[in-house]
Design brief:
Number of strands: 13
Order of helices and strands: EHEEEHEHEHEHHEHHEEHHHHHEHHEEH
Number of helices: 16
Strand order of the largest sheet: 5-2-1-6-7-8
Strand content: 15-25%
Distance between the termini: 22 Å
CATH topology of the largest domain: Rossmann fold
Shape: elongated
Radius of gyration: 25 Å
Amino acid sequence: MSALSGLRVLDLSRVLAGPWAGQLLADLGADVVKVERPLLGDDTRAWGPPYLQDGRGHDTSEAAYFLCANRNKRSIAIDFTQPDGQQQVRELVARADVLIENFKVGGLAAYGLDYASLQAINPRLIYCSVTGFGQDGPYAQRAGYDFMIQGLGGLMSVTGRAADEPGAGPVKVGVAVTDILTGLYASNAILAALAERERSGQGQHIDLALLDVQVACLANQALNYLTTGLAPQRLGNAHPNIVPYQDFPTADGDLILTIGNDSQFRKFCDLAGKPEWASDPRFASNAARVANRTVLIPLIRQVTVFRTTAQWISDLEQAGVPCGPINNLAQVFADPQVRARGVQISMEHALSGSVKLVANPIRLSRTPVSYRLAPPLLNQHAAEVLRDWLAE
């Protein structure tokens, strides 16, 4: 028995933020039905290459992008721009616990599928709306995409090389992190609303905006600004509040040092053959190191280049100083810790025989995550969904 067994979720969302929330609920045991457009389906089915390959090495119709966010779901194609499709969605809603959608504000009202209309059918429904800017405010009608939100929401102002370095300028994060974070907030909000429903018996509307999430997740950088009134600047791989906490060159590559306290710094200094740094007033405390980073960082760089990355990691780990390499994805999935934790999984797939996926990182001792269904083909489960949900 999974944690969310018996929970029914109707997932009308597309692309990443909404589907990510739906996949998390599905991994935890919910019956998540993905409602897609006939013939085309979710936009990300076509967001390739790369595409999943069949047993002969030929591309299938399924883009890798789609596969990342739609495990454990069943697919049904419904054209709810038409009256028959609208009625079919309403019938499913009557049996649902949760609905997830990421249409533009007011977009579903034209089809009678907005929260007010569906709440009248099912007062216990948790209706989660994911949009770029939320249900109100001057930007509410705008479309919102992750890259644009990373810029508008301030993340790119603190991501990228410092202004005085070659290649300086704003850079987006290498994955659609705002979408992912919004999906995580959405699933958390849904679980909170379900818990409250146990007391009240009533559903509610969840209004989640990518912009709100992006600003909330600026975390210490947002508070650095609110505390001082000074906008943080790009520091490349350096940390605004901790030094040394960045990458350094080695004899054969790069090393990340994440020194979080003065004790760890003293241990590093001893290993580096520079014990005097730990007692130098300019470097003896983290606050002093932050103030004098432009002096300390070049000194450390002059030392780290004399050992290989592997030598540094071995020495530092033995001394209890946090550090690590900068891996590409081939190295990530070959890493012994990643392999030991089972982060890569394989599931049976109708087109390829099997598909490699990334495991859910949640570890529950009694009700673990279950992997029941590979990302579905478009409309793959229409007959069984209608039978399971409506033939009662």
